[in-house]
Amino acid sequence: MTNCGFDNWDLRPFFQGPDQEDYLAYFAAVQEQVGEMISCKQAPQSLEDLSAFLLEFEELQARLQHMVVYMECVRSEDIANEVSAQAQSQLEELGAQFRQVEVRLLASLRQLDEEQFKQLCSDPKMKGAEYQLERLRHSALHSMDSELENLAAELDLTGFKAWENLYENIAGSLNFEITDSKGQKRRAPMSLKVSLMEDPDRQLRTSTLAESNQAWKGAAHSVSAALNNIAGCRLKLQARRGYKHFLEEAAFDSGLQRSTLEKMIDTVLKHAELPRRYLRLKAKLLGLERLGFQDLGAPVDFAAYLHEAKPAKSKTYTWQEAGELIVKAFNRFDPAFGKFAREALDNHWIESEVREGKRPGGFCTSSILLGQSRIFMTFQGNLGDVFTLAHELGHAYHEYLMDGLRPCAHNYPMTLAETASTFAEALLSDYLLAQPGLSRLEKLSMYQRRLDDAASYLLNIVMRYLFERSFYEKRPDKLFSASELCLLMEETQKQVYGDALDEKQLDPWFWASKGHFYITEISFYNFPYIFGYLFSMGIYAQALKQGSKFLPTFTKLLRLTGSASCEDTARLGLGADLTDSKFWESSLDIINRDFTAFEELLNS
Ligand SMILES: [Zn+2]
Fold first, then answer.
1. CB count, 10 Å around CB of 225?
2. 195 CA to middle of ligand 1, Å?
3. Residue 228 in domain
4. CA–CA gap between residue 270 and residue 107 (Å, rounded)
5. 392 CA to middle of ligand 1, Å?
6. 186, 306, 395, 498: most buried by Cβ count inside 10 Å?
7. Is residue 558 part of a domain?
8. How far is the CA of 556 from the centre of ligand 1 (A)?
9. Which band of pLDDT confidence, cut at 50, 70 and 90, is reported for residue 2?
């Protein structure tokens, strides 16, 4: 237990409690409204009816979202609480009923011809909702007849989603024995693999990779069946829903054109030497000729490398210091951002206590109706926690800047969701690096953190994307055996990492160990990360160039994220062209700048 200080969030502006009168009354009112919308005999017939239905749908969705945000908070702060567990399952049921309302809406939108749809969009009551209407219409046109959609939803539980659940069960049950450099053995569950791969002990990392993969090998038949059948199921559904290519749906979910996605990936691959150069340097810093896959996330002992005295203890921050640091870092960019962070802290929007019974991890969640966010984290005083706080405050600021927009215009895709949060981290990081009191070792660690991130986005996640793409390209003609999947994975790793990774120390079982490939709700759970990272870096590049002149641009851009595609958000908000590789190169320049600074610092 640390005594670095903390805060508990104040949820009373939402409700007094999930078993209290205010929440129960709110729930009952929403439930009644959902029931009414389902039970009205006819789907909306005239455009006027449809417009009214849409307004009610939007309002209802916002009220439901308000409860979901609240429930996410109360569930996370005390996982074992039975009262909130029960309230959550009731809310989930209500959510499922609400989806029937959505099916009804989509069916009505499907029946409109182009002219009628245009007329609907030009209704003054739909002002500011045009883009979301287009998205709803696209979903409507890419859905099967209601009866078939209902069948698909029913089969989801025993088919499509069942494969994902099977995978999760297998992953949750696997464990393996590891040996550290002192020859000590212990067993570890699969859930610890990622953190073990960041251990300073190379023998432990090597053992973790080898032994965890041995465990996956034992489950190879089931896991490869899950992967093949998830893809098979998805491809069948996509074909029935009128998608012509397996990437179309993922690109639509991301609010992105396929051609833009390809331009981004091509540009990153063209400049793959940049992160590879960093990895070659990292090998040297770790005293290795070449990195193995198990070394990608390894920490570097700069003191040992530079033969400098090791600091007695790594620096820690109190809760108060962390808040002050972040406010100052944000102020340097925009006093309004700093003021917002100060108020979020002072108004107790953040839950940061180290306490048993809390869920792990961090998140930011926002109620559109309340116009407030809440941040969940566990603050133990290390630098990583300060960054988490800055990151989540970035999310909250994004929501704050959208204030006054109609509810549906808050709905931004995953690709744009990390814009403000990654930006906030960059602000903090640059602010810290500019501090005169920072030692060379501390600076080096900060750059390593940034460059490790860059290598992960530009190589590791690109590798996941290319693997998935090749797999889906060939999947209609064949079932992949586990060894074929391993081979494809190794080939992709060689292609992306080049000679920055030792060919004999790759990770052929990565297709089995990475759960993202098994998510059924969304495919290609990889490129939105690359997009978000590079988009944010591109914006940061502009902010550095323009200084305070950039502030209105930043606000305009973030307000657009739920009202336009990624391309239009960049064009209208930033004057940038995402279909031109120059934009992506400007993001890579920032990483190049970091790499140069890192090298100079090492050699100084
Ligand atoms: Zn985030």
1. 15
2. 19
3. no
4. 44
5. 6
6. 395
7. yes
8. 20
9. low
